[in-house]
Amino acid sequence: MADYERILLTGGGGFVGSHLSAALAEAYPGATRAMLLRPGERSAPKSFACVTADLLDEHAIDRLVADLRPDLLVHLAGQASIGQAAKAAEHTWRVNFHGAFALGAALARHAPAAVTLFSSTAAAYGAAFREGMPDEETPLRPQDVYSRSKAAAESALADVLAPEGRLIVARPVNHSGPGQRSRHFVLSSFAAQIAAIEAGRAEPRIKVGDLSKARDFLDVRDVVDAYVRLIAAARDLPERVSVFNVASGEARTIGSLLDDLRALSRTPFDIEVDPERLRPSDIDITSVACDASRLRAATGWRPRYPLGDMLAALLEEWRAAEADGAA
User: Fold this and answer.
1) What is the Cα–Cα distance from 265 to 197, expressed in whole angstroms?
2) Largest CA distance in the chain
3) Fewer CB within 10 Å, N or C, the chain?
4) Which is nearest to 97 in space by CA: 155, 180, 31?
5) Of the candidates 168, 266, 159, 177, which has an alpha carbon nearest to the alpha carbon of residue 218?
6) 9, 21 contact by CB (below 8 A)
7) What is the pLDDT of residues 93-136, one digit of tens each?
8) Are 312 and 264 in contact (CB under 8 A)?
9) Which residue ranges make up each domain of the chain?
């Protein structure tokens, strides 16, 4: 197991980051741990020191990396929503690509031997899903702003990081679960609407997109477990750049997942298709699932949380938000 003395985490204030920061603190209690926050973002957890800088300010990022000289960078920060990315293409490219480039260049200058784990996306396979389940050797054919910017960041990091460094590219499928408080993601949107209906704040009707599409979903806690295992194995991986799908390999229709949430709901509801929630037919994919055999072979990882547990935890999250008036 690799040991680390100085850890830099970006995106630690987000959905996945809130889980991963706790896992890293537990795995590496003796390390100096710093979390990069945007100006005005909430404070880091007590287990991490807070460092504030705009990811798009290359000089500030360079100074930060020069001061900390991390031997592990975990880069989660970026635009995470495909829908939101499409509405703000320029900003998405600046954050997802230029932010990664600035970090990679700073590491090459000041911490060339560092391990970098970059959270990319399985969406980068894009049109390749039409031809079956991709593994890591499948050529990327991204079809939207979000996945194109992530795929470009993968290539930039591979080129810019120093030869003595290690890059782990993780390509997770959709993930949800406790802590997801954004309505921009399909299951979280459903859970938020159900919680509002149960609280009497909304009519008993859920707005949906295309429920026939099938997607590979994981609990966020399983994704974080995969990241921690990859970080621990980094120094033993045979390649300077290693790519891993993080996936169950099984796709469920969005409609069937909504049925599971309906069974957990305390209030009956109807369903209404909202045209605004439908993706363009030329880029939408009927089924998305990935082969994660490489991850299992390298780390022994397997999903531990059933989707039913994930959905129950997600709905409880939104019920708590309703109760607190934070929904």
Assistant:
1) 9
2) 58
3) N
4) 155
5) 177
6) yes
7) 999 999 999 999 999 999 999 999 999 999 999 999 999 999 99
8) yes
9) 6-175+219-246, 177-215+251-289+305-324
Q: Mean pLDDT, to the nearest integer, of 154-167?
A: 98
Residue 10 has pLDDT above 90, yes or no: yes
Cα of 219 vs its chain's centroid, Å: 11
The DSSP-derived string for 155-188 is HHHHHHS-TTSEEEEEEE-EEE-TT---TTSHHH
The pLDDT tens digits for 74-105 are: 999 987 666 666 677 899 999 999 999 999 99
Q: What would the two tokens of residue 196 be?
A: 């509002």
pTM, full prediction: 0.95
Mention the CATH class of domain 177-215+251-289+305-324. Answer: alpha beta
pLDDT tens for 267-288 read 999 999 998 888 765 567 899 9
Residue type, 129: F
pLDDT digits 0-9 by tens, 47-61? 999 999 999 999 999
- Residue 205: strand pairing partners: 270
Architecture of domain 6-175+219-246: 3-Layer(aba) Sandwich (3.40)
Give the residue from 36, 132, 127 showing the smallest Cα distance to 75. 36
Both structure tokens of 38: 């945007």
Partner residues linked to 89 by β-bridges: none
The answer to whether 104 and 161 are in contact (CB under 8 A) is: yes
